[in-house]
Write a structure and sequence with these properties.
It is a single chain. The protein is built from nine helices and seven strands; from the N terminus they run H-E-H-E-H-E-H-E-H-E-H-E-H-H-E-H. By secondary structure, it is α/β, with parallel strands linked by helices. It has a seven-stranded mixed β-sheet with strand order 3-2-1-4-6-5-7, with helices on both faces. Strand 2, helix 3 and strand 3 form a beta-alpha-beta unit. The termini are far apart.
């Protein structure tokens, strides 16, 4: 069913134990003004899941886009009912988008990724395999990052070092949008504000096992980043809250 909701706010043997009719995997994609990327992203997600024989759904969470993103998602749904969507009336931020996607997810496993094609869907099988090896959450690590040095890479490095020190969780890349979870994690950890950055730490404090995996990172193909230095400031303030 197509869920347009307006709101004010491989381990193959283990993967195939879902109840009949339910997906094994929910891919949650928060987005804001990424219309040009969505068709290509969906096709890559589908190819990765079909190759591994994983029953899947894709939940696009449109965080108040005004560039035709929702219309692009509607078109995808008409071609494939495994595409689902949630639409916000205005831009609320990534944490709210993820929270809505997590609430809607039906799969035993959940993968999150950004909609700008910089996260590579071909990494999905490897992340699921690591979950099958005992992790409850696997955080991606963009070992070779294709982003500007001064506006993204250096501030991100400082942010990750500080966050690791203060949370006691040694990860290279808290900010990576590409993560894999067991369903229990996303139904337990609640995020708001900029707390999506700290999901691995919050999960650890709830007793879940957190791992890390190096993932491929690609240059942005369409549009421009919505990420600014001000988000590091709000992120650090939320770190104090955490």
């Amino acid at each position: 069913m197509f869920e347009s909701r307006k709101t004010s706010k491989s381990n193959r043997s283990r993967l195939h134990s879902s109840r009949a009719g339910e997906p094994d995997l929910s891919v949650v994609v928060p987005l804001y003004n990424e219309a040009e990327s969505l068709d290509e992203l969906y096709r890559e997600i589908r190819a990765a899941c079909v190759k591994e024989r994983v029953r899947f759904e894709v939940i696009f969470v449109d965080d108040g886009s005004d560039d035709g993103s929702f219309e692009a998602i509607e078109k995808l749904h008409k071609a494939d009912p495994r595409v689902r969507a949630i639409q916000f009336r205005r831009n609320f931020g990534k944490s709210e988008a993820l929270s809505a996607g997590f609430a809607a997810a039906r799969g035993r496993f959940v993968v999150t990724m950004d909609a700008d094609l910089q996260d590579d869907p071909a990494e999905i099988p490897g992340l699921l395999k690591k979950l099958g090896q005992g992790c409850d959450l696997v955080s991606g690590w963009k070992r070779k990052r294709h982003d500007p040095l001064y506006s993204k890479r250096l501030p991100s490095k400082f942010f990750n070092k500080t966050t690791s020190l203060l949370t006691g969780l040694d990860l290279h890349d808290f900010n990576c949008g590409l993560k894999a979870y067991r369903k229990e994690v996303v139904k337990t950890v609640h995020v708001y504000g900029e707390l999506h950055r700290y999901i691995p730490a919050l999960a650890k404090w709830h007793g879940f096992r957190v791992g890390e995996a190096a993932v491929n990172h690609r240059p942005r193909k369409y549009g421009r980043t919505k990420f600014g230095l001000s988000r590091y400031l709000t992120g650090m303030l939320d770190l104090i809250t955490v």
